[in-house]
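Figure 6 in text form: structure in, sequence out.
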């Protein structure tokens, strides 16, 4: 992520603010597609085994809290 932000800053200095807007559009689109895929995966898993979704949700919650804890 740091490399992407450095690259955007370098291109901003070369070409102006349009690069920042285009980069934000591309990143937002990528994140929206990723969220849609995860959402579709969870919907598909509900039909297979609803309790598996509960386990995965708790696992993801624990993972997010673990990654965002303060040192």
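Output sequence:
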């Amino acid at each position: 992520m740091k490399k992407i932000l450095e690259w955007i800053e370098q291109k901003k200095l070369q070409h102006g603010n349009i690069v920042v807007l285009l980069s934000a559009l591309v990143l937002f689109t990528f994140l929206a597609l990723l969220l849609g895929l995860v959402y579709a995966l969870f919907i598909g898993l509900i039909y297979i085994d609803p309790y598996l979704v509960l386990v995965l949700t708790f696992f993801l919650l624990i993972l997010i809290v673990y990654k965002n804890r303060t040192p």
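Caption detail: The chain has a mean pLDDT of 85.
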